[in-house]
Amino acid sequence: MIDKVKSPLLTEKSIRLLQKNQYTFQVNSDVNKTEFKKWIEIFFKVKVMSINSCRPPRKKKRIGLISGYTVRYKKIIVTLKSGDSIPLFSI
To answer: Mostly located where?
Structure first.
């Protein structure tokens, strides 16, 4: 399962969500919520309250005459029980 998690997302919005005890990850498109919830609870030893996921739209990119699209990915936002935290995001 760890190979399906690409990276933690650190954007302005995700840093703002850290105050609400919500953590954002970029994952492969084939990961579902239940698998990810079990993995987070086992790996980080925390209690997951809810999980939200979305697939942001691709953006059109152009380099010279060649045009294409950015790679599509899946973003998962995990809400933890108050008092729990993931040390990976410690700032």
So the answer is: plastid
Please state the pTM of the whole predicted model. 0.81
What residue has token string 């969500």? 17
Q: Which two tokens stand for residue 35?
A: 């698998």
CATH assignment of 2-86, among 3.40.50.1820, 3.30.70.330, 3.90.950.10, 3.50.50.60: 3.30.70.330
The 3 state secondary structure assigned to 50-78 is: EEEEECCCCCEEEECCEEEECCCCEEEEE
pLDDT one-digit tens code per residue, 51-80:
999 998 999 999 999 999 988 889 999 999
